[in-house]
Amino acid sequence: MVSRRTVLRGVALSALAATITPARAAAPLRIRAGWVLVPTDLLPILPEAPQLTRHMGKSYVLELQHFNGTTPMITALAAGVIDVAALAFGSLPFAIENAKLGDLRIIADMFQDGAPGYHTNPYLVLKDSPIRRVEDLKGKVLATSVLGSASDLGMRAMLRKHGINDHTDVQIVEAPFPAMKAVLHEKRAVLVPGVLPYSRDPELLAISRPLFTQAEAMGPTQQLFRAARTGFLARHRAEMIDLLEDILRVQRFYSDPANHEEAVQMIARMTKQPAASLEAWLFTKDDYYRSPEGLPNFAALQANIETMRQVGIIPRSIDAAKYADLDLIKAAAKRVAKSG
What we know:
The chain is globular. Helix 9 crosses helix 12. Strand 6, helix 4 and strand 7 form a beta-alpha-beta unit. Helices cover about 40% and strands about 15% of the residues.
């Protein structure tokens, strides 16, 4: 016969197990993340490379949400629709001043345009276009991806530097990056921004030439960075470090020349671009610069913000470094370096 003491002990142990088991079996954190393009954003690559991600599916899972540009992600962050955003250099002052997101924090580099020895985005006109100078754009229709995006702001800065009012002297229309070739070819706009991988499309290269580059407009640019709000970061620091570690591992693997062919084939499959159009530049010095440690270039970012102020895109500057939380990416980079 089982004693009362034995029964009570069993009940107590069962209760203890009930308090422990859920913690061990807790579902991975769902991280809702916005993205625009592959391979400029590595997040969509993570599910394609499970052999490289140590934490995806364990401590976190990704819910990826596509945007045509970075500007709409400000609204999505403010509304709590996404947890992590890919924002451009112009997004920070817009988010702080316009959307009142004073709790926004920059947590990691994504990529930089015009870093010495690396790629910078061209702004393209047709090869046979009569437009030879920026001043020739006055009165014309120009294309942008999304109003307020990095490529949009680079174009507007260049116009203003050459005495062209981007609100009254030109007409600016929106089009997604994959459509820019058709927009230019069909003469729906005389100028389009070229961003990787689409700017290396052989068909686009055959019909176009650069009028100017983003580096000429803005100097070296902290083009995109990853950002989140302080409340989310405070609640989920461990999971965010895991995510950033996985991103750095994927970046390191595909930046290794030994894995170049694998990177080309994967990105060709994901973007539906010919592998031949990726071979020469992808994850090389002809690509954008990505910090191996994931650290943003705050000197460039601050200079970009100052340029926007000087040409009148924003009324006043902000101190970008005040909106940084780099402890997460530093912890992630330390893990990657330690594990080899």
